[in-house]
Design a protein that fits this description.
With 333 residues, the chain is of the alpha/beta class. It contains eight helices and 13 strands.
């Protein structure tokens, strides 16, 4: 990351031919979706065997993302056409004085207890979040990690240490509340769908929400319930039964907190419209009022062409049909 606006990559080129050549050298930043977000071409001349250093200036490039850095050297007459990836570069809006954002800006998908294996890794990750201007990190908060034996709540997992380290840097946390449990529901990605399972989930909610209440003021309700890999048995009925209960517990133990509902993997599929409407009809509209809806765009091939705003507009319009105006809730993306 760079604090100032001057950004360079130092390159060294060598003409391996025994004659002078003139080539077009193209520098590119391509993200994981294959989207070339920045490209710049320079004409360069070389004497036979000459080595030349060149500083690629991309100070004008502002789009934040993680990029593969490619360099292409081309001369059609000589049959030269070589494209090589030299490194991976992250463009991050940084501030030496730390967080300057006024609105929520969490770094996700964040961390799990298993991913942060060393104190050094944790320290580097949190420092990068702070320098990057993020207000905090979104992380998995699963019933299956807290109670491997139902009823035996564990309050001292590695993620508690991570939460504390995050707070020490002035960063916030956004816990994703999973209420799946290998022993109770059949897996971390299985929602409670019987009265007995829901009763045990409620007992867990009575422990985890008070445990988190002084550590956060935002929650997310189940990550991407619309994807089978994250929710094996999602239904509007299961979702509403579970999160109506969870909302009551958050209102009881953390009444000023906001909850992000939906948490869909994408905002574009019409398949999500039908069960969203069913949930709104069964009380979700009132739960959203004063809280938030949240989406993970997963744009393909790139954010510029995905049209996220138009896709999310359907949900805004649908909420208005249920009497919930746009100024009554937030949208997290």
């Amino acid at each position: 990351s760079w604090v100032d606006d001057k950004k360079y990559i130092h390159n060294t080129f060598t003409n391996l031919k025994d004659e002078p050549i003139l080539v077009d050298v193209t520098f590119e930043f391509e993200n994981a979706d294959g989207y070339v977000a920045y490209s710049k071409t320079e004409k360069m001349s070389f004497e036979a065997g000459e080595e030349k250093k060149f500083d690629f200036d991309f100070s004008e490039f502002q789009r934040c993302d993680r990029y593969n850095y490619f360099v292409t050297v081309k001369n059609d007459e000589l049959g030269i056409n070589s494209r090589v990836q030299y490194s991976v570069v992250a463009i991050i809006k940084a501030d030496p004085d730390g967080i300057q954002n006024e609105h929520m800006n969490f770094c996700g998908p964040g961390y799990s207890a298993q991913s942060l294996t060393t104190p050094e890794y944790l320290e580097q990750a949190l420092d990068l979040m702070r320098l990057g201007g993020f207000s905090g990190s979104r992380y998995d908060e699963g019933w299956h990690t807290r109670e491997t034996t139902p009823g035996n709540f564990t309050a001292n997992l590695k993620q508690d240490t991570v939460i504390e380290e995050t707070a020490e840097r002035g960063l916030d946390v956004l816990p994703i509340l999973y209420f799946g449990n290998n022993v109770v529901t059949g897996g971390w990605n299985w929602m409670p769908d019987t009265e007995e399972e829901l009763a045990k989930a409620e007992q867990y909610a009575e422990k985890i929400i008070p445990h988190l209440a002084d550590k956060t003021d935002v929650y997310e309700a189940w990550n991407e319930p619309d994807l089978l890999s994250f929710s094996k048995n999602f239904s509007p009925e299961n979702y509403m039964n579970l999160y109506s209960m969870v909302a009551e517990k958050i209102e009881k133990y953390d009444p000023t907190a906001k909850i992000g509902y939906l948490c869909y993997a994408g905002a574009g599929s019409v398949d999500r419209h039908d069960y969203t409407t069913k949930m709104l009809q069964n009380g979700l509209s009132e739960m959203i009022r004063g809280n938030a809806i949240t989406f993970h765009g997963y744009p393909n091939p790139n954010a510029e062409n995905f049209g996220t705003g138009k896709r999310i507009q359907w949900y805004v319009d649908e909420l208005e049909k249920f009497g919930v105006n746009r100024d009554e809730y937030e949208i997290w993306t």
